[in-house]
Amino acid sequence: MFLLKVSGKTNLCRLMKDHSFVSTGTVIFLRLIVAGCGSTNSNGSSADERGDLSTAARTTQLALTDPDCPNGGILVESGIDENRNGLLDDEEQETDQVFELYTVTATGAHLEKMSGTLVANGSVGSFSWAPDGTRLAYLADQNIDSEFKLFTVRPDGSGNTKVNGTLVSGGTVSSFKWLPTSNQLAYTADQENDNVFELYTVAPDGSNNVKVSGERVDNGDVVSFEW
Prior knowledge:
Blueprint: E1 2-5, E2 8-14, E3 21-23, H1 28-36, E4 45-47, E5 54-62, E6 73-80, E7 100-103, E8 112-113, E9 124-129, E10 136-140, E11 149-153, E12 161-162, E13 173-178, E14 185-193, E15 196-202, E16 210-211
């Protein structure tokens, strides 16, 4: 089972003094909490009925001088209660609208973060298990914002490795697929020339990076592939 996590801060601002609230932050995360979680307890955590994984939130009154809410309001901070103490701790409140990759058992236990530390504004895109389950591959602009690269990681979250070759300035990995035997990945990227997408293969540890697409016509690209 997988979980793509989005967490962060939302301001609920008063439209006028002593009036109702309106959100100036993201509504998506709050809707995800409502749709994906079970009962809410009094300490601010919301537990999934399938296990002990839970989201958590904390609120803080905003002063009338707050630049985002000039009439005052409430700051709502949210995240995943990874230490399961029923509270949102500072280290559990992460960046708004940043998608990260996690694994968790079907019962909601053993939450593990798979993606590495992300650069500011970085996020995880697509991901896929190796057929034999030994590694998880994913695309993310983990090191440089908007430059998506291919990474693999072990099921316990260790061994996070960038496996694509060195990208030209502005280059990005656009897609990837596992070989059915799990000992190679194929991916498309404008690795050597910006906006020229070619096909490469690589081992899960990043070794043996080889361009396998042939000569191309001017403005030609690799658009799809199958093993």
